[in-house]
Amino acid sequence: MATARATWEYRDRFGDGFGRTYFRRFGPGVVSSVGLGTYLGAPTDAVDEGYERALIAGLEGGCNVVDTAANYRCGRSERVVGRALGRADVERDAVVVATKGGFLPFDGDRPADPADYLRERFVEGGPVDPADLAASQHCIAPDLIDAMVDRSLDRLGVETIDCYYIHNPETQLRVRSRAAVYDQLEATFERLERRVAADDVGGYGVATWEAFRRPPEHDDHLSLPTVIDRARRAAETVGREECGFTAIQLPFNVVMADAFTTPAHEFEGDRRSALEVAHALGVDVFTSASLAQGDLSTELPASVDAELSGDTPAQRAINFARSAPGVTCALVGTSDPNHVAENVAAGTFDPLGARAFDAVFE
């Protein structure tokens, strides 16, 4: 588990090489504001090798946040993260490791008949009730998430997952009401609160794509204040004084800035953005798609590009995500070792201040 002592020592080891706001508070410790993502890439040995080298370079170069998921690259990404943690010249408890559960994962490669595979492995005698499935492969029921925590612990080779996300819960809105999704989230949060109490999980949260960026009238909307309230109720139910809901993850970049610009959530008598609500409720924000899956690595909108610091478009795009008020860490894909140094070096430049960031949208 990441600890305050080890993460602060990591900051002392690398901090002089970065800008003054590169390391940011996360719980009792600190994290780099550029993190290592593991989403893209084929489920092959060659891609595994590239990821492993890239992750080690990032961990040994000043990034102490690694993000993955049970279903990324047919489960290979979690295993690669585990190998990199074991081989990098950093302490395990200096690194915040996050993963996700919700999409039923394959194991190593894509089976010839995916539907048959998922039915045999997860439904027939497994932890999934067919009534809890959405889109044939998504489930956030307590029993499934409990099993996925164990699977991720094993694949990652760690004793504790620092942040465990429920993955894209808005997928469930395809088959059930918003109220029913909140009820299921609360039941699963209760299970995760127990895993926090057992030190299997350091904290938990929700990783979304649409849910927190869209206004209430949108089909995929989920209320961030309601989700956090349900987590606090779950903590009370299991008798924990401190709620384990730690963070949210959502996409944020130059061309997907809804988390800052869209007043999507009813909060304290007003409509506010996801970033504003998360900050007010003391929840950390980790941004995904900081480079729009590579589209922003070569060119940015000219009006924004001119306001940002960095030697390359990729660095300036990363610094845009790091500049948003309330953002703790911007995640960047790391499948190519040759890009790691460039991405990490974005942190040697200071991001925009709050006023300058606001001015981008005026």
Automatic annotation (TrEMBL):
The lineage of its organism: Archaea, Methanobacteriati, Methanobacteriota, Stenosarchaea group, Halobacteria. CDD domains: AKR_unchar. It holds the Pfam family Aldo_ket_red. Transmembrane segments: none annotated. Residues 35-357 form the NADP-dependent oxidoreductase domain. It comes from Haloplanus litoreus. This is Aldo/keto reductase. InterPro entries: AKR2_Oxidoreductase (IPR053135), NAD(P)_OxRdtase_dom_sf (IPR036812), NADP_OxRdtase_dom (IPR023210).
